[in-house]
User: Fold this.
Amino acid sequence: MRYDAINPGLFQLNRKRFMRKMQPDSIAIFQSNDLMPRSGDTFFPFRQNSGLFYLSGLDQEETVLVLFPDCIKEGFQELAFIKRNDEHTALWEGQKYDKEQASKVSGIEKIYWLDEMDKILHELILLAKRIYLNLNEHDRFQSEVLPKDVRYAHWLMERYPLHKYHRSQPILKKLAMVKSPLEIELIQRSIDITGKAFRRVLEKTRPGVMEYQLEAEVVHEFISNGANGHAYEPIVASGKNTCVLHYVSNNQKCQDGDLLLLDFGAEYANYAADLSRTIPVNGQFSPRQRSVYDAVLRVLKGARQMLVPGVTIEEYHREVGKMVESELLKLKLLDKADIKNQNEKYPAYKKFFMHGTSHHLGLDVHDLSNRYDPIQAGMVFTCEPGIYIREEGLGIRLENDILVTDHGPVDLMADIPIEAEAIEEAMNAEVMAP
Assistant:
């Protein structure tokens, strides 16, 4: 792996917390992600299933984790199965975990080869009454591709039809929303790498540069600092592209006088960062650009202070909407008649600010969460207000990652430039140098 070894105590703690939530006489089975076909005989780069990684730290394909806290067979409360490490695999694919390495990474004593699983797991399942399975339950996820977890669930239910089946994701959501100190450190590492990439973009941005050239600068900094790569598909959007919320073509030339909206984040040890900045291509905001920029920044600062324990996400988004509405009135993009006549289900401000302000961040950029749970200390949220004026081809989004604590929100991106003056100063540093 590119990243430094992670203390296995993190995964041991996560397993203990998960097993405490399981019903009696239950076994939980977690599958690694598929190797996803790309074309011909090639695959996309492997990325581990977040649930399996959260509970084991095992970052390798063809891996299975089994948890059985009430197992009467001594020593089989937790075990993992990994791909057999042999000379053929080492020659063609490189070295994989051996049993000792897998045990060291995960803190699991019993490690078996995957080709030993059928016999061992069969006996354990017959000792259990219930089976927990880990299917993707993200409420925005839809796919026609059947992942390994779904295929395996179908197979198990045919082979063991009289067992009771339970969902692992509700437990994982409750646990993963609140980060441990070590997880915060890993997220901060992702953020620090992301900040280095942003500073590099500030140095390289100028009229005439291509969006994809700036994307390449981001990739350079990510890989140079040990990140896996992007935590999500990056947005490098100039000019009118700043008003396309999920613009990822990144193939246009940056023009003098335009803004450049950046939305990217490094993934380090599978933990994500999520940063948005909007900068002037020529290094100087116009008066109009600056007025909108400052409005968005005021909303971010106000919203950030609301990320405190006890607040619900619905309340939070409602109050942020009021902040945006106030700024739009000041910018004369809305008037009092617009507010008076607005549709309550689709407020007037939504014309200029269409997306939500915050989402959980962790092993996924849109991390496992229950959106109806109140905010708690230990949660990490993005804070990303924006104003998009399509008639002017002017879009601004600013985003920092915020840790919720009992003593007030902590901005994990506080060291990354965001004030307009700091952006302009960084972009013009070389020009001003003697």
Notes: Residues 181-432 form a domain with the Creatine Amidinohydrolase fold (CATH 3.90.230.10). The chain has two domains: 9-175, 181-432. The chain is about 35% helix and 15% strand. The mean pLDDT is 96.
